[in-house]
Specification:
By secondary structure, the protein is mainly beta. The chain is built from 1 helix and 12 strands; from the N terminus they run αββββββββββββ.
Length: 217
């Protein structure tokens, strides 16, 4: 008899936290070095005049949506198209873009004392108030995900070199053997300007976190 099992263990959480710290450290210190006079959030003008942005990146995630389980990683790309260069707030240095992406991530499942365990898909009531699993996944503990996020990207240009953004939206995902499903997507992130139209971009959220390089056009 199988019982309902817990979420991803401490090892998965620590891996995700370490990746998030590694992703945001260069962006954070790049912003911290800026002097007070460098901040341009109230100038009302985006310092990089661009209409589109392409961002190849690495991704890492834990506790994925759907039947997957455990931690995993992969690669992806995000494209953002500026819809409102002057943003939502008059006199504030913000902008709004539509972001769409394509990410691939492989999850390794959960390794317990008896090896990899699959996830229970359906429980039925058992004797003495117990739950009995009557249907389980059958991927040998590993899962391949394809994510297709679509988000609204709200940018805040803090200095000539640093910007922060929030990205609420929808995430369409495909899991091997289980087809397509949809779920929420929510990210926060930042950019550190490396060259005229090139930035180091870090993103933290659900269902993945990532770090990459953005090329603006």
């Amino acid at each position: 008899m199988l019982t309902r099992r817990g979420r991803c263990g401490a090892r998965c959480a620590l891996a995700s936290l370490a990746f998030a710290i590694a992703a945001f450290v260069p962006v954070f210190f790049g912003a911290k070095r800026a002097q007070a006079s460098d901040f341009i959030i109230q100038h009302g003008r985006v310092p990089i005049g661009y209409t589109a942005e392409v961002e190849p990146h690495l991704v890492l995630g834990s506790a994925p949506p759907g039947p997957g389980y455990g931690s995993g990683g992969g690669i992806g790309v995000r494209a953002s198209f500026v819809l409102a260069p002057e943003g939502f707030i008059r006199g504030l240095n913000d902008s709004v873009a539509l972001g769409v992406g394509l990410d691939y991530s492989h999850y390794y499942g959960y390794l317990g004392f008896n090896g990899y365990r699959d996830q229970c898909l359906h429980f039925e009531q058992g004797p003495a108030g117990t739950s009995v699993c009557t249907e389980v996944t059958s991927n040998g503990g590993s899962y391949n995900y394809i994510y297709i996020p679509a988000v609204m990207q709200w940018n805040f240009w803090l200095t000539d070199r640093f910007s922060a953004f929030g990205e609420p939206g929808l995430n369409l995902y495909f899991v091997n053997n289980y087809g397509f499903s949809a779920g929420p997507a929510l990210y926060i992130g930042g950019r550190l300007r490396l060259a005229d139209r090139i930035t180091l971009t870090a993103r933290l959220g659900y269902p993945t976190i990532g770090i990459g390089v953005s090329f603006m056009q």
